[in-house]
Amino acid sequence: MPVRPSLRVAVLLLLSSSASSALAPRAPSLAFVDHLPSRQSAHLQNRHHNTAATKLTMTSDDKPSSLGNVIDGKSIAAAVRSELADKLSGRSLTDSKPGLAVMLVGTRKDSQTYVRMKQKACADCGMDSFLETYEDVEAVTEEVLLAKIREWNDDERVHGILVQLPLPEKIDEGTILEAVKPEKDVDGLHPANTAKLFSTSTHAGAAKLNWRDFTTLPFHIPCTPQGCIELLDRIGCDIEGKNAVVIGRSNLVGLPVAMLLLHRNATVTIVHSRTKNAEEIAKRADIVVAAVGRAKMVPGTWLKEGCVVVDVGINSVDAPGTKRGYRLVGDVNYEEAKAVAGWITPVPGGVGPMTIAMLLRNTWNSWRRATAGKS
Protein backbone atom coordinates (compact mmCIF):
# COMPACT_ATOMS: atom_id res chain seq x y z
CA MET A 1 0.00 0.00 0.00
CA PRO A 2 1.56 3.33 -0.99
CA VAL A 3 2.33 5.51 2.02
CA ARG A 4 2.36 9.28 1.99
CA PRO A 5 4.20 11.50 4.49
CA SER A 6 2.33 12.22 7.71
CA LEU A 7 0.12 15.27 7.42
CA ARG A 8 0.12 17.84 10.17
CA VAL A 9 -3.41 18.83 9.28
CA ALA A 10 -4.41 15.23 9.89
CA VAL A 11 -2.71 15.38 13.27
CA LEU A 12 -4.88 18.35 14.13
CA LEU A 13 -7.99 16.40 13.32
CA LEU A 14 -6.79 13.69 15.64
CA LEU A 15 -6.06 16.07 18.49
CA SER A 16 -9.26 18.02 18.16
CA SER A 17 -11.60 15.04 18.00
CA SER A 18 -9.48 13.57 19.68
CA ALA A 19 -5.15 -8.15 28.81
CA SER A 20 -4.96 -11.09 29.78
CA SER A 21 -5.44 -11.91 33.48
CA ALA A 22 -1.94 -10.58 34.14
CA LEU A 23 -3.10 -7.17 32.92
CA ALA A 24 -6.69 -7.34 34.08
CA PRO A 25 -8.11 -3.84 34.75
CA ARG A 26 -8.70 -3.02 38.39
CA ALA A 27 -11.58 -0.67 37.66
CA PRO A 28 -13.76 0.24 34.70
CA SER A 29 -12.55 3.20 32.70
CA LEU A 30 -13.68 5.52 29.98
CA ALA A 31 -11.68 3.35 27.62
CA PHE A 32 -14.60 1.03 27.08
CA VAL A 33 -17.46 3.43 27.73
CA ASP A 34 -18.39 3.33 24.08
CA HIS A 35 -19.01 -0.42 24.34
CA LEU A 36 -21.61 -0.03 27.10
CA PRO A 37 -25.33 0.74 26.96
CA SER A 38 -25.97 4.48 27.01
CA ARG A 39 -27.18 4.53 30.60
CA GLN A 40 -24.05 2.72 31.83
CA SER A 41 -21.87 4.96 29.68
CA ALA A 42 -23.29 8.11 31.25
CA HIS A 43 -22.99 6.57 34.71
CA LEU A 44 -19.31 5.76 34.26
CA GLN A 45 -18.48 9.16 32.84
CA ASN A 46 -20.20 10.91 35.75
CA ARG A 47 -18.44 8.76 38.34
CA HIS A 48 -15.07 9.11 36.62
CA HIS A 49 -15.46 12.87 36.26
CA ASN A 50 -13.91 14.10 39.48
CA THR A 51 -10.57 12.32 39.75
CA ALA A 52 -8.42 9.77 38.01
CA ALA A 53 -7.87 8.03 41.32
CA THR A 54 -11.56 7.25 41.82
CA LYS A 55 -12.07 3.55 42.51
CA LEU A 56 -15.19 2.10 40.95
CA THR A 57 -17.03 -1.13 41.55
CA MET A 58 -17.03 -3.26 38.43
CA THR A 59 -20.18 -5.20 37.71
CA SER A 60 -20.30 -8.19 35.41
CA ASP A 61 -21.84 -5.97 32.73
CA ASP A 62 -18.97 -3.45 33.07
CA LYS A 63 -16.13 -5.91 32.60
CA PRO A 64 -14.39 -5.63 29.24
CA SER A 65 -13.95 -8.67 27.07
CA SER A 66 -10.58 -10.42 27.18
CA LEU A 67 -9.45 -9.22 23.74
CA GLY A 68 -9.91 -6.22 21.47
CA ASN A 69 -10.86 -3.59 24.05
CA VAL A 70 -10.44 -0.05 22.72
CA ILE A 71 -8.60 2.59 24.77
CA ASP A 72 -10.70 5.67 24.09
CA GLY A 73 -8.17 8.49 24.25
CA LYS A 74 -10.73 11.10 23.30
CA SER A 75 -12.90 10.37 26.33
CA ILE A 76 -9.95 10.04 28.68
CA ALA A 77 -8.51 13.37 27.51
CA ALA A 78 -11.91 14.97 28.07
CA ALA A 79 -11.93 13.56 31.60
CA VAL A 80 -8.49 15.06 32.32
CA ARG A 81 -9.61 18.47 31.07
CA SER A 82 -12.78 18.24 33.13
CA GLU A 83 -10.78 17.39 36.25
CA LEU A 84 -8.58 20.45 35.70
CA ALA A 85 -11.64 22.64 35.20
CA ASP A 86 -13.03 21.36 38.50
CA LYS A 87 -9.81 22.25 40.31
CA LEU A 88 -9.98 25.79 38.94
CA SER A 89 -13.72 26.37 39.27
CA GLY A 90 -14.91 29.16 41.52
CA ARG A 91 -11.86 31.36 41.06
CA SER A 92 -12.67 35.07 40.64
CA LEU A 93 -11.38 37.31 37.87
CA THR A 94 -8.79 38.74 40.26
CA ASP A 95 -7.52 35.36 41.46
CA SER A 96 -4.31 33.92 40.08
CA LYS A 97 -4.85 31.21 37.52
CA PRO A 98 -2.59 29.13 35.27
CA GLY A 99 -1.30 30.99 32.23
CA LEU A 100 0.06 29.46 29.01
CA ALA A 101 2.05 31.63 26.59
CA VAL A 102 2.40 30.43 22.99
CA MET A 103 4.81 31.75 20.37
CA LEU A 104 3.81 31.32 16.72
CA VAL A 105 6.24 32.22 13.94
CA GLY A 106 4.98 32.23 10.36
CA THR A 107 1.59 31.62 8.77
CA ARG A 108 1.33 27.85 8.53
CA LYS A 109 -2.37 26.98 8.56
CA ASP A 110 -1.87 23.80 10.58
CA SER A 111 0.15 25.61 13.24
CA GLN A 112 -2.43 28.39 13.44
CA THR A 113 -5.21 25.85 13.91
CA TYR A 114 -3.24 23.98 16.55
CA VAL A 115 -2.59 27.19 18.49
CA ARG A 116 -6.29 28.08 18.40
CA MET A 117 -7.07 24.65 19.82
CA LYS A 118 -4.66 25.24 22.70
CA GLN A 119 -6.20 28.62 23.45
CA LYS A 120 -9.70 27.16 23.43
CA ALA A 121 -8.62 24.30 25.68
CA CYS A 122 -7.14 26.80 28.13
CA ALA A 123 -10.35 28.84 28.19
CA ASP A 124 -12.47 25.73 28.69
CA CYS A 125 -10.41 24.79 31.76
CA GLY A 126 -10.39 28.30 33.24
CA MET A 127 -6.78 29.06 32.33
CA ASP A 128 -5.34 32.20 30.78
CA SER A 129 -3.54 32.11 27.45
CA PHE A 130 -1.18 34.58 25.83
CA LEU A 131 -0.31 34.51 22.14
CA GLU A 132 2.51 36.27 20.33
CA THR A 133 2.55 35.89 16.54
CA TYR A 134 5.25 36.81 14.04
CA GLU A 135 3.77 36.48 10.57
CA ASP A 136 6.60 38.16 8.67
CA VAL A 137 9.21 35.40 8.67
CA GLU A 138 11.66 37.49 6.68
CA ALA A 139 11.60 40.32 9.21
CA VAL A 140 11.66 38.33 12.45
CA THR A 141 15.03 37.69 14.06
CA GLU A 142 16.27 35.24 16.64
CA GLU A 143 16.95 38.08 19.06
CA VAL A 144 13.34 39.31 18.82
CA LEU A 145 12.09 35.84 19.77
CA LEU A 146 14.60 35.51 22.59
CA ALA A 147 13.55 38.90 23.95
CA LYS A 148 9.91 37.79 24.12
CA ILE A 149 10.86 34.55 25.86
CA ARG A 150 12.89 36.49 28.42
CA GLU A 151 9.86 38.70 29.00
CA TRP A 152 7.64 35.66 29.55
CA ASN A 153 10.24 34.04 31.80
CA ASP A 154 9.91 37.04 34.14
CA ASP A 155 6.12 37.39 33.86
CA GLU A 156 4.36 36.01 36.95
CA ARG A 157 1.14 35.57 34.96
CA VAL A 158 2.87 33.08 32.66
CA HIS A 159 3.40 29.59 34.08
CA GLY A 160 3.98 27.73 30.85
CA ILE A 161 5.76 28.72 27.64
CA LEU A 162 5.31 26.81 24.41
CA VAL A 163 7.12 27.57 21.16
CA GLN A 164 5.00 26.25 18.30
CA LEU A 165 7.14 24.07 16.06
CA PRO A 166 8.42 23.96 13.42
CA LEU A 167 10.32 27.22 13.37
CA PRO A 168 11.62 28.77 10.13
CA GLU A 169 14.97 27.39 8.99
CA LYS A 170 16.70 30.71 9.71
CA ILE A 171 15.91 30.33 13.42
CA ASP A 172 17.97 27.92 15.54
CA GLU A 173 15.35 25.78 17.28
CA GLY A 174 17.67 24.63 20.07
CA THR A 175 18.65 28.18 20.99
CA ILE A 176 15.01 29.24 21.30
CA LEU A 177 13.84 26.19 23.27
CA GLU A 178 16.76 26.33 25.69
CA ALA A 179 15.99 30.01 26.42
CA VAL A 180 12.75 28.98 28.13
CA LYS A 181 13.07 28.63 31.90
CA PRO A 182 12.94 24.88 32.70
CA GLU A 183 10.17 25.47 35.24
CA LYS A 184 8.03 27.04 32.49
CA ASP A 185 8.95 24.50 29.81
CA VAL A 186 5.58 22.74 29.72
CA ASP A 187 6.56 20.82 26.59
CA GLY A 188 9.25 19.08 28.66
CA LEU A 189 11.90 19.59 25.98
CA HIS A 190 14.47 21.65 27.87
CA PRO A 191 17.73 19.75 28.50
CA ALA A 192 17.35 20.30 32.25
CA ASN A 193 13.95 18.59 32.27
CA THR A 194 15.23 15.81 30.03
CA ALA A 195 18.15 15.18 32.39
CA LYS A 196 15.79 14.86 35.36
CA LEU A 197 13.59 12.42 33.45
CA PHE A 198 16.62 10.25 32.68
CA SER A 199 17.84 10.15 36.28
CA THR A 200 16.80 6.98 38.09
CA SER A 201 17.79 8.36 41.52
CA THR A 202 18.94 4.91 42.60
CA HIS A 203 22.11 6.12 44.33
CA ALA A 204 22.30 6.60 48.08
CA GLY A 205 20.86 9.87 49.32
CA ALA A 206 18.93 10.64 46.14
CA ALA A 207 15.40 11.93 46.64
CA LYS A 208 12.83 9.36 45.60
CA LEU A 209 10.07 10.58 43.31
CA ASN A 210 6.51 9.30 43.04
CA TRP A 211 6.33 8.26 39.40
CA ARG A 212 2.74 7.09 39.90
CA ASP A 213 1.56 10.68 40.25
CA PHE A 214 2.95 13.12 37.68
CA THR A 215 1.44 16.06 39.56
CA THR A 216 3.97 15.52 42.37
CA LEU A 217 7.06 15.72 40.14
CA PRO A 218 9.08 18.95 40.45
CA PHE A 219 9.75 19.16 36.70
CA HIS A 220 7.90 18.73 33.42
CA ILE A 221 7.42 15.48 31.48
CA PRO A 222 6.96 15.61 27.66
CA CYS A 223 3.27 15.60 26.82
CA THR A 224 2.87 12.66 24.42
CA PRO A 225 4.93 10.16 26.47
CA GLN A 226 3.10 11.30 29.58
CA GLY A 227 -0.19 10.74 27.78
CA CYS A 228 0.82 7.16 26.95
CA ILE A 229 1.35 6.33 30.62
CA GLU A 230 -1.86 8.13 31.57
CA LEU A 231 -3.80 5.89 29.19
CA LEU A 232 -2.29 2.78 30.77
CA ASP A 233 -3.17 4.04 34.24
CA ARG A 234 -6.73 4.91 33.27
CA ILE A 235 -7.48 1.38 32.06
CA GLY A 236 -5.99 -0.05 35.25
CA CYS A 237 -2.91 -1.60 33.64
CA ASP A 238 -0.40 -2.46 36.38
CA ILE A 239 2.93 -1.56 34.75
CA GLU A 240 5.23 -2.85 37.49
CA GLY A 241 7.04 -6.05 36.59
CA LYS A 242 5.67 -6.22 33.07
CA ASN A 243 7.76 -6.73 29.94
CA ALA A 244 7.44 -3.55 27.90
CA VAL A 245 8.71 -3.05 24.37
CA VAL A 246 9.04 0.42 22.88
CA ILE A 247 9.35 0.43 19.09
CA GLY A 248 11.23 3.59 18.14
CA ARG A 249 13.97 5.59 19.85
CA SER A 250 13.18 9.24 19.10
CA ASN A 251 13.94 11.99 21.59
CA LEU A 252 10.32 13.15 21.47
CA VAL A 253 8.54 9.87 22.24
CA GLY A 254 10.53 6.63 22.15
CA LEU A 255 13.23 7.38 24.70
CA PRO A 256 11.05 9.40 27.13
CA VAL A 257 8.26 6.81 27.22
CA ALA A 258 10.84 4.06 27.75
CA MET A 259 12.17 5.96 30.77
CA LEU A 260 8.67 6.49 32.16
CA LEU A 261 7.98 2.76 31.90
CA LEU A 262 11.31 2.05 33.59
CA HIS A 263 10.47 4.47 36.40
CA ARG A 264 7.30 2.43 36.91
CA ASN A 265 9.41 -0.72 37.26
CA ALA A 266 8.68 -2.33 33.93
CA THR A 267 11.41 -4.33 32.21
CA VAL A 268 11.95 -2.26 29.09
CA THR A 269 13.40 -3.16 25.69
CA ILE A 270 13.75 -0.61 22.88
CA VAL A 271 13.37 -1.95 19.35
CA HIS A 272 14.87 0.15 16.57
CA SER A 273 16.00 -0.05 12.96
CA ARG A 274 19.10 -2.07 13.81
CA THR A 275 17.41 -4.50 16.16
CA LYS A 276 17.74 -8.16 15.23
CA ASN A 277 14.74 -10.45 15.76
CA ALA A 278 12.37 -7.53 16.41
CA GLU A 279 9.32 -9.79 16.04
CA GLU A 280 10.64 -12.25 18.60
CA ILE A 281 11.32 -9.45 21.09
CA ALA A 282 7.93 -7.77 20.58
CA LYS A 283 6.08 -11.05 20.99
CA ARG A 284 7.31 -11.36 24.58
CA ALA A 285 5.89 -7.97 25.57
CA ASP A 286 2.97 -7.41 27.91
CA ILE A 287 2.97 -3.73 26.84
CA VAL A 288 3.89 -2.52 23.36
CA VAL A 289 4.37 1.18 22.56
CA ALA A 290 4.80 1.83 18.84
CA ALA A 291 6.35 5.19 17.96
CA VAL A 292 8.34 4.70 14.79
CA GLY A 293 6.38 6.66 12.15
CA ARG A 294 5.83 3.85 9.64
CA ALA A 295 2.30 2.91 8.63
CA LYS A 296 1.17 -0.51 9.84
CA MET A 297 4.73 -1.63 10.49
CA VAL A 298 3.70 -3.86 13.40
CA PRO A 299 1.49 -6.77 12.31
CA GLY A 300 -0.70 -8.82 14.60
CA THR A 301 1.79 -11.69 14.43
CA TRP A 302 4.27 -9.60 16.44
CA LEU A 303 1.97 -9.45 19.46
CA LYS A 304 1.39 -11.72 22.42
CA GLU A 305 -2.25 -12.52 23.07
CA GLY A 306 -3.74 -10.23 25.71
CA CYS A 307 -1.03 -7.57 25.55
CA VAL A 308 -1.71 -3.83 25.73
CA VAL A 309 -0.85 -1.84 22.59
CA VAL A 310 -0.30 1.93 22.63
CA ASP A 311 0.04 3.19 19.06
CA VAL A 312 1.62 6.65 18.89
CA GLY A 313 2.07 6.66 15.12
CA ILE A 314 0.05 8.95 12.85
CA ASN A 315 0.51 8.17 9.17
CA SER A 316 -1.58 8.89 6.10
CA VAL A 317 -2.09 6.26 3.43
CA ASP A 318 -3.83 6.59 0.09
CA ALA A 319 -7.54 5.90 0.17
CA PRO A 320 -8.89 6.28 -3.37
CA GLY A 321 -12.58 7.04 -3.53
CA THR A 322 -12.72 8.81 -0.17
CA LYS A 323 -13.39 12.54 0.21
CA ARG A 324 -9.85 13.38 1.31
CA GLY A 325 -8.13 10.71 -0.74
CA TYR A 326 -6.25 9.44 2.29
CA ARG A 327 -6.92 8.03 5.73
CA LEU A 328 -5.01 7.98 8.99
CA VAL A 329 -3.40 4.81 10.32
CA GLY A 330 -0.99 4.07 13.10
CA ASP A 331 2.30 2.21 13.27
CA VAL A 332 0.35 -0.94 14.17
CA ASN A 333 -1.92 -2.90 11.85
CA TYR A 334 -5.04 -2.12 13.87
CA GLU A 335 -7.36 -4.73 12.39
CA GLU A 336 -4.87 -7.56 12.98
CA ALA A 337 -3.73 -6.32 16.38
CA LYS A 338 -7.26 -5.83 17.71
CA ALA A 339 -7.88 -9.55 17.32
CA VAL A 340 -4.87 -10.34 19.51
CA ALA A 341 -4.41 -7.50 22.00
CA GLY A 342 -6.31 -7.16 25.25
CA TRP A 343 -6.34 -3.37 24.92
CA ILE A 344 -5.37 -1.16 21.99
CA THR A 345 -5.45 2.53 21.11
CA PRO A 346 -7.09 3.44 17.80
CA VAL A 347 -5.70 5.93 15.29
CA PRO A 348 -7.18 8.48 15.32
CA GLY A 349 -8.70 8.87 18.79
CA GLY A 350 -6.09 7.16 20.95
CA VAL A 351 -2.85 8.85 22.00
CA GLY A 352 -3.34 12.04 19.99
CA PRO A 353 -6.09 13.68 22.10
CA MET A 354 -3.94 13.22 25.21
CA THR A 355 -1.22 15.63 24.05
CA ILE A 356 -3.11 18.87 24.72
CA ALA A 357 -4.62 17.40 27.89
CA MET A 358 -1.13 16.74 29.26
CA LEU A 359 0.02 20.20 28.15
CA LEU A 360 -2.78 21.72 30.23
CA ARG A 361 -1.90 19.54 33.19
CA ASN A 362 1.76 20.56 32.96
CA THR A 363 0.68 24.20 32.94
CA TRP A 364 -1.52 23.60 35.98
CA ASN A 365 1.38 21.87 37.77
CA SER A 366 3.67 24.81 37.00
CA TRP A 367 1.11 27.28 38.34
CA ARG A 368 0.57 25.20 41.48
CA ARG A 369 4.29 25.05 42.20
CA ALA A 370 4.78 28.77 41.49
CA THR A 371 1.93 29.83 43.77
CA ALA A 372 2.48 27.35 46.60
CA GLY A 373 2.44 29.17 49.92
CA LYS A 374 1.22 32.44 48.42
CA SER A 375 -2.02 33.98 49.65
Structure description:
- With 375 residues, the protein is an alpha/beta fold.
- It has helices at residues 8-17, 38-48, 73-88, 109-125, 142-153, 173-179, 191-197, 223-234, 254-263, 278-282, 334-338, 354-371; strands at residues 3-4, 69-70, 99-105, 128-134, 160-163, 243-247, 267-271, 287-290, 308-311, 315-318, 326-329, 343-344.
- Strands 2-12-9-8-6-7 form a six-stranded parallel sheet. It has a three-stranded antiparallel sheet with strand order 1-10-11, with no helix packed on it.
- A hairpin with a 7-residue loop joins strand 10 (315-318) and strand 11.
- The longest helix is centred in the last third of the chain and has 18 residues, at 354-371.
Fraction of residues in β-strands: 5-15%
Strand order of the largest sheet: 2-12-9-8-6-7
**Would you count the extended β strands for me?**
12
Radius of gyration: 21 Å
Uncertain spans, ≥5 residues at pLDDT below 50? Answer: 3-63
Number of discrete helical segments = 12
Q: Based on the structure, what is the oligomeric state of the protein chains?
A: single chain
Report mean pLDDT, rounded to a whole number. Answer: 86
Helix content: 25-40%
Overall 3D shape: globular
Helix-strand string: EHHEHEHEHEHHHEHEHEEEEHEH
**Distance between termini?**
60 Å
The major β-sheet equals: 6 strands, parallel
Structural class: alpha/beta
